[in-house]
Amino acid sequence: MASLSTTSLSFKAPSTRISQVLKKGSSFQSVTFGRFTSSTSKSLRLQISCAAKAETVQKVSDIVKEQLALTADTPLTAESKFTALGADSLDTVEIVMALEEKFNISVEESDAQNITTIQEAADLIEDLVQKKPAA
Amino acid sequence: MRTSIMSQMQRSFSIELPKLVPLQLPSRMETHLWYVIPDEVKSTSLLKQYSQLLSPPENDKVLQMRGDKLQKNALLARTLVRTTIARYQTNNGVDPRTLMFKKNMYGKPEVDWQNYKNCSDPPLHFNISHTDSLVACGVTLHVPVGIDLEDKDRKIKHDVLTLAERFYSTDEVTFLSTIPDPEVQRKEFIKLWTLKEAYVKALGKGFSAAPFNTFTIQFKAGTNGGYNLCKEETKKCNRDWKFGLLELADSHYAAVCIEDDQARAPMRVIVRKTIPFVEDELISESKFL
């Protein structure tokens, strides 16, 4: 009896966040869910942190639009690559610095180099914001 | 004679292209710098011809650019590379559509000469850079080359010294902080950015191989735009890399970096403006010590 209640507890906490993962779409296959049962809580958290909030994506998009002086009719999605929007290396550096200021985080150069899309920037931001010690 | 090469290609080459005027190869320690001003290329039929030069993956990449202007510039960049390289081939001219490209193991684009095993031409090196309003391609013989362009009037949104402290070497920060006029300081920051980018691109090993704060590019006093490359840690300067900084089209800084081929001779840069298939114009010849 006691062992049954502990196994049911390990699934309770992530259940609301799993629905966010489902909404992200086709990138998650059923195989992933099989891994949830035996994965550690750390890898579980990594799967969930892939889906950044829409609000964060919007804030990142606004900063990118401003830095690159994009016109209102430029098609922009979360998957938009910075280079496809006309960003060069100096633009990318300024975008990362603007994101640091907006979200009050610090981005390592190695992480900054891996950001190529708006979604990736938003994901990294949420990851860093979560890791910050509570104020 | 060329039909055997053509039959290997998947694409239809039934469309006739205008003839390309051949070019003499760059000589030792020489960089040929070609540029196109996108605003000067207005003809839609010419742009259509250009898109017929590109491979299907290249055309896909052009279409991924968001907006007409960015797509046009991306198209012009690939056209400039293909037509320029094709013109340097001395064996009766090469169809620019047949050129193939690959990436080195760090992602730097280069010509894939595999279809030209019988070709006796030594391999050319090239590097492209473009901004909103200018597209350029540098070409050398035997030695790696990197080029970078920046608009002289480019606005920097953050404080220049803050950016420098984070990304540049200590000597470069010192140099920039001694400049009293903020406008001059901004210009020097941009010049340094183009020089550092050009070096990293010439090196061809990706940005992580040479982070900006691990090396200094310093102006050699009393020379014609010559620069030294020095390591931040050791302060040792090496003469293996040559730099040149020019102004293009009154609007841009252009930095050129080549690996010295042991000639220890000045680097020459020959600048030409072009509209592929239409015209060339010799702009300048410079020597950099």
TrEMBL record, chain A:
Keywords noted in UniProt: Chloroplast, Fatty acid biosynthesis, Fatty acid metabolism, Lipid biosynthesis, Lipid metabolism, Phosphopantetheine, Phosphoprotein, Plastid, Transit peptide
InterPro entries named in the record: ACP, ACP-like_sf, ACP_chloroplastic, PKS_PP-bd, PP-bd_ACP, Ppantetheine_attach_site
Residues in Carrier domain copies: 54-129
Pfam families on file: PP-binding
Primary location group: plastid
Domain of life the protein comes from: Eukaryota
Stored Gene3D superfamilies: ACP-like (1.10.1200.10)
Subcellular location: Plastid, Chloroplast
NCBIfam families to which the protein is assigned, alphabetical: acyl_carrier (TIGR00517)
Protein task: Carrier of the growing fatty acid chain in fatty acid biosynthesis.
Family: Belongs to the acyl carrier protein (ACP) family.
Record protein name field: Acyl carrier protein
Name of the coding gene: LOC104717763
Automatic annotation (TrEMBL), chain B:
Stretches assigned to the 4'-phosphopantetheinyl transferase N-terminal domain: 47-136
Every 4'-phosphopantetheinyl transferase domain range: 144-257
Keywords noted in UniProt: Transferase
Domain of life the protein comes from: Eukaryota
Listed EC numbers: 2.7.8.7
Designated name of the protein: holo-[acyl-carrier-protein] synthase
